[in-house]
Specification:
By secondary structure, the chain is mostly beta strands. Helices cover 6% and strands 57% of the residues. It has one domain. The radius of gyration is 18 Å and the shape is globular.
């Protein structure tokens, strides 16, 4: 992912592009074309990801009383196909696609959050909680069925997870009496972690995708100075 100027952004009803990379709808499939240079070691990242939703979620959820920040589970359950030419890898499996959007930067609205998503036998469970910039907490727990319909559920019990290598605090929810376990941490950054959990939710043993985000850390001048080394900035 490369930061680029406004002149390199193009958007319409069915496509969005930033420089040579972009997303577009091809019938019932979201096609993500990737043409990037990695950082800090510069090598090509080229390929295509196809996301075929089983259903489309039509509801966006407000994360703050003023509705400046919204979360939209666009495709709570989907089939994903990844085909990369650089590096030469491919795989397919079940997936999920959502969007955070709003009227101000995330770091202006929040100090931190913890989020997780699990594909269950019939439903998709999404658990969301954190602390807004003004110190007030927020939480959201929903199940979405195979038709895309959603309903609120009671948050399971709080559960601790080990801190990351960068000492980012992680937390989650799980059924009372169970102990969630980190199977693998895919991203361990100074302000963000994405992991795979083995856990138990609503009476089912599941694997969950989990993320913890520290926007208080993200606002730090030290972290801001580190970002260009992992996310290149191009002015053309």
């Amino acid at each position: 992912m490369t930061e680029r100027g406004a002149a390199r952004v193009d958007r319409s009803a069915d496509h969005f592009s930033v420089g040579p990379s972009g997303l577009s709808w091809d019938g019932d499939t979201l096609v993500i074309d990737i043409a990037e240079i990695s950082a800090p070691l510069p090598y090509k990242v080229r390929g295509t990801v196809r996301v075929r939703p089983e259903m489309i979620g039509t509801t966006a959820f407000a994360l703050d009383p003023a509705r400046r920040h919204r979360w939209h589970p666009v495709a709570p359950r989907a089939h994903v196909e990844v085909e990369m030419s650089h590096p030469g890898v491919r795989w397919s499996g079940s997936g999920y696609f959502d969007s955070n959007f709003g009227d101000e930067p995330l770091e202006d609205g929040f100090d931190d959050w913890h989020w997780s998503r699990a594909h269950m036998k019939n439903d998709v469970a999404v658990l969301y909680e954190g602390r807004r910039r003004d110190g007030t907490p927020f939480d959201l727990a929903v199940k979405l069925d195979r038709q895309g319909r959603w309903h609120d559920v009671v948050q399971p019990a709080k559960a601790r997870l080990p801190r990351t290598g960068w000492l980012v605090k992680r937390a989650t929810r799980a059924d009372e009496g169970s102990t969630p376990r980190v199977i693998k941490t895919w991203i361990d950054a100074p302000f963000y972690a994405r992991s795979k959990l083995a856990t138990r939710l609503f009476g089912e043993d599941v694997e969950a995708v989990h993320e913890s985000l520290s926007l208080a850390r993200f606002r730090s001048p030290i972290v801001q100075s580190m970002l260009p080394y992992r996310m290149p900035r191009a002015f053309w």
